[in-house]
Each structure stands twice: as C-alpha cells, then as structure tokens.
Design goal:
By secondary structure, this protein is mainly beta. The chain has 2 domains: 244 residues, no CATH class; 72 residues, Sandwich (Immunoglobulin-like). The chain contains 1 helix and 25 strands. The strands form 4 sheets. Strands 2-4-5-6-7-8-11-13-14-15-16-17 form a 12-stranded antiparallel beta barrel. Strands 22-21-24-25 form a 4-stranded antiparallel β-sheet, with no helix packed on it. A 3-stranded antiparallel β-sheet has the order 19-20-23, with no helix packed on it. The chain is globular and about 55 Å long. The N terminus is likely disordered.
Length: 346
C-alpha cells in the first residue's frame, strides 16, 4: 500500500513539474492574432518572481480604455520589406513595437525592429552587420544566454533626421515556470515566462554628438500547451542619454488576454476584434481577426464610402492601389456591429 501511494505521488509530482519547452514548432504563425486588454502602466512586473513552481498573481489588474492586437505579419507585406529582406515573420504589438525575425531549429534571429515613439517618431533598427539572437532552441526554464548585435538606426531627434550606426547587447532567458493568475478567477497552469532585455547604443547629432541608449525589457507569458501566442505581456522601453538617470522618453505596454475586473474608464462596448496590416500600406492590405460574413468599408476623411468588400474572412487581402495616397478609415461590419480603424496609404 505504501509503495502504491509513493508511486502515485511520484507520478503526480512528475506531471505537475513536467518541463515546458519553447522550440521552433510552437512559434506563432503568420496571421496569428490575439486581442489583448490594455492595463495600467504602473502594473508590477513581478521581476523577482522566478524559478520553478512559482505563481504570478495579476488578479488585481487595473484595465484602461481599449485593446491592442498582438499579430504576426508577413514582412513581405510590410512597408519596410526592403529593409528586412532576410526576415520571415514580424511580431507586432499594435501601436508600439514590431520585431522582424527568422528562425531555424536551433535559434531565432532578429534582423531589427520598428518602434513607434512620439518624441522620436518611427525608430527603425536594422541589425544588418550582426543579427540579434533572441531565442536558443530548445529553450526551457532556467535557460539563458547573452548576445551581441550591430547595425544602424533611423529616426528623428529634435527635428533632425538621424541615421547612426548602433551596437547592442541582449540577455534572454526563461526565468520561471508555474501558475499565472489573471482576473475573473482565471488560473493557467504550466506557464513559462520568457524575458528579454536588450540595450542598443548609438550616437545622435545635435550641436554636439550625444550618446543615446535604447533599453527594452519585455516579459512574455506562454501557455504553450494550448496557445502559441502570449497570454500576458509586459514591455518597457526607455530612451536616455548615456550616463543620465533621467529618460528622454519611456513607453510601457501591459497587455492581458483576460479582461481586468478593476477598470479605469474601460469601454465595455462590444467591438469586432480585427487588425489591418501593413498600416501604413502602399496599397495592398490584409485583414485578420474574428470575422464572420463580414464586410469591409473604406471611407475617406469626409465619411464617404469609396470601396466595399463583402464576405471577407481572416487573412483576406484587399487591393487599394487604385486609391490616392492619404488617410482613410476602414470599418468592419459583422452582425450589425461596427468597428473602425484609421488606415494610411503611402
């Protein structure tokens, strides 16, 4: 009897502690989309909660008005396709950061990123001299590595266009496996947390040369048994002058797959979750999302409908190359509900 109980205990313990492995087979695929709820930027990242069998408690998340999409795009459809010619996927946090990469069975390599920041405009990083390794496959709890990378940047600083070279160093790890607690009594077991900290060094020209540092710290929580997209993310980007404690700009994005119960002005109106990429576009756009016998209506800035596509499905491409460059609106209509986004043709 004792032997039976001991065996059952060992089997139970083994099942609970079974290692979750990140590899090329569970990478997100092009067109994958997850709509996330935006949360308070002051949310604690729980940096010190690491190891095996830990619990990350985000049950008291505070939501703010809106959602953002996490989407995996085809770099060939991006306005920056001529830059990231070696990339096979683009992982995008809507309105924030898009990372371009390719992968093999042993690693994932980044060729750079696009970062949207009001003070600097669109920051384009291209690691064309030495690509950045972001994941070493297989990758599991306790695994980590550092990597050096280099290339060039393009952005605007104080009204002046900048195109400096850059060098960088990154640290990536899976720093924990355990239980993720989200609002509405949501408990997700066997979650792993992927962490990356990358630091980019460059120099800008403004009266005198200034050394500037871009630092990104990002946590991604994965339930790889059920979903290849993250179920929770925390991303913090800081841009500062070297040796200065005061940032020139910061941006924090906290996104949850479960809607927070505590809210600060969260719009509870039901909307259609969809994404349009690339946006800005040179004319051909792809629609992804929860679409069911949906229609896409393109209107100009005066509200005039100029193109309609009916019975669209996720992944469908719409050709707008016959329209003039400028700003438009795209409205998706499904079962009497409408959601509108701004669309830029360039």
């Amino acid at each position: 009897m004792k032997k039976t109980l001991l065996l059952a205990t060992l089997i139970s313990s083994y099942s609970f502690a079974q290692t979750v492995i990140m590899d090329q087979s569970n990478e997100p695929a092009i067109g994958d989309l997850k709509t996330m709820y935006t949360c308070d930027s002051l949310t604690d990242p729980l940096e010190a909660t690491t190891g095996n069998g830990v619990t990350w408690d985000y049950t008291q998340l505070v939501g703010i008005n809106g959602t953002r999409n996490l989407i995996v795009i085809d770099p060939a459809t991006s306005p920056y396709s001529s830059i990231y010619t070696n990339s096979t996927k683009g992982y995008s946090i809507e309105g924030s950061l898009t990372n371009f990469y390719n992968s093999t069975s042993t690693e994932r390599q980044s060729q750079g990123f696009i970062f949207e920041e009001p003070s600097f405009g669109t920051v384009i990083a291209h690691f064309d001299v030495n690509e950045q390794k972001t994941v070493s496959y297989p990758f599991a709890n306790g695994d980590s590595f550092t990597d050096n990378f280099s290339g060039n940047l393009s952005f605007t600083f104080n009204g002046l266009a900048q195109n400096p070279s850059c060098t960088g160093r990154s640290y990536a790890s899976i720093d924990g496996q355990g239980t993720l607690l989200l609002p509405s009594s949501t408990t997700i077991e066997n979650v792993i947390r992927y962490k990356i900290v990358d630091t980019v060094f460059t120099q800008v020209s403004f009266v005198i040369p200034l050394d500037v540092v871009f630092i990104r710290t990002q946590y991604e929580y994965y339930d790889l048994t059920n979903d290849n997209m993250p179920v929770f993310t925390y991303s913090f980007v800081s841009i500062k002058q070297a040796n200065s404690a005061t940032p020139l700009a910061t941006q924090t994005a906290v996104l949850s797959s479960v809607q927070p119960i505590l809210t600060a002005g969260l719009d509870t109106k039901k909307e259609i979750n969809f994404a349009v990429y690339p946006n800005p576009s040179e004319g051909k756009i792809t629609i992804a999302g929860n679409l069911n016998n949906s229609s896409a209506i393109i209107t100009d800035m005066r509200g005039r409908a100029i193109k309609v596509a009916k019975n669209i499905s996720t992944g469908q491409q719409i050709d707008l190359t016959d329209l003039q460059r400028g700003s438009y609106f795209i409205t998706i209509e499904t079962d009497g509900k409408r959601t509108t986004q701004k669309l830029i043709l360039q």
